Amino acid sequence: NPSQRAEKNKAQIKMEQHMVQTLIEIDGRIPGALRVAFGISGRPTPAPGHHDEVANFAAVLLAPRDGASEPMDCDEPVAPGGLRMVFESCYIKDHDEDAHFGHAAAGVVGVADGVGGYRDRVDASAFSRGLMNNAYMEVVTAAPGTHVCPRTLLERAHMMTAAAGTPAASTAVIVSLAGRTLKWAYVGDSGFLVFRDGRILARSQPQQHSFNCPYQLNSERDGTSVAEAEVGEVPAKEGDIVVVGTDGLFDNVTEDELERIVRMGTALGFSPKNMAEVMAAFAFEAARCGNRDTPYSVLGRSEPGRAFFTGGKPDDITVVVAYIVPSSL
């Protein structure tokens, strides 16, 4: 009825106003050096004859590394004592179909991305939110000190979400710190990166049937099974940084750019919250830029009729950043 539509419109306007203010605040936290290094607008040009200290900082600190980044050797001495995960998140909404959770004591984080193809039929956020809520409830009801197995957790969350007949579908990734080992399980193109000393140590590779068509979990018997999830682990070390996100991050920001953001954030003493906000803000700007290459446009150019395709992909952007620190801190 008209009154319900009016209330819905008011709520939508209020949410949009809140998001605009949130984006202004996040955008203000992008350091000038990052803008210089990546060519992002919004920074005043220095007066003629004045030394540009920000540009100099960007050139030194954020220079791309020579050659492609390769996984680093993990065969190194393990320091005594335990480790724990300290994390924060940033979520920039587009259709509001992403979901995420984290549990500090259990050392586990996860993100999920509702598949937009269901948007015209049902609530496309239903399955992603169901997955993350059920995963969280499994963690909080487990015995204290339980080491979380991401694949088992994802499987249980999927079973409960499907058993409830939840509509739509979702990609998902869960990463846990089990003792001194980082473990993961993921389905689709929600993914993660593990950084050590500013370089990528481990990474996910998107599971896709075709361009922009990821593997996805749903309530149907013919859907993707958790048995198809990619799983793995790597020894953890104090100082490692884990970035978990939906494709709103990884479609718009390259691995090299993320390495450089991590190096900058580490040098400037960023907290996990600072790091997550800068990554999300950069992804948001890149998603709406039509004249630069992104992982999405590079992959898209392999499709027929897209030979000159450039630009990003506007989407929900979820970023969770976790620092691996001594358990005594």
UniProtKB/TrEMBL annotation:
<dbReference type="Pfam" id="PF13672">
    <property type="entry name" value="PP2C_2"/>
</dbReference>
<dbReference type="InterPro" id="IPR001932">
    <property type="entry name" value="PPM-type_phosphatase-like_dom"/>
</dbReference>
<feature type="domain" description="PPM-type phosphatase">
    <location>
        <begin position="83"/>
        <end position="324"/>
    </location>
</feature>
<dbReference type="GO" id="GO:0004722">
    <property type="term" value="F:protein serine/threonine phosphatase activity"/>
</dbReference>
<dbReference type="GO" id="GO:0046872">
    <property type="term" value="F:metal ion binding"/>
</dbReference>
<protein>
    <recommendedName>
        <fullName>Protein phosphatase</fullName>
        <ecNumber>3.1.3.16</ecNumber>
    </recommendedName>
</protein>
<keyword id="KW-0904">Protein phosphatase</keyword>
<keyword id="KW-0479">Metal-binding</keyword>
<keyword id="KW-0460">Magnesium</keyword>
<comment type="similarity">
    <text>Belongs to the PP2C family.</text>
</comment>
<dbReference type="InterPro" id="IPR036457">
    <property type="entry name" value="PPM-type-like_dom_sf"/>
</dbReference>
<keyword id="KW-0464">Manganese</keyword>
<keyword id="KW-0378">Hydrolase</keyword>
<dbReference type="InterPro" id="IPR039123">
    <property type="entry name" value="PPTC7"/>
</dbReference>
